[in-house]
Amino acid sequence: SCGGEKQNIIAESVHRDPEDPNTVIVNRQFTDLSTAQEFLSALNSDEEFQAMLQKAGVQPETLELWVGEDV
What we know:
This protein is α+β, with helices and mostly antiparallel strands and about 70 residues long. It has two helices and two strands; from the N terminus they run E-E-H-H.
């Protein structure tokens, strides 16, 4: 599971599109870019995460995961 990174998370927020409640954005701000990239890499191969998505009815082709930098 990808729960061990909690100490590297600075902030978290969850947002929903008011016109499409099926569109949800989860934002996590990490201490540095490499930690965020490591988290994303681990998440993509995490079987527990994949099972959770399937149970929630998330269509894999609609899921977007990416890493960005503060500017």
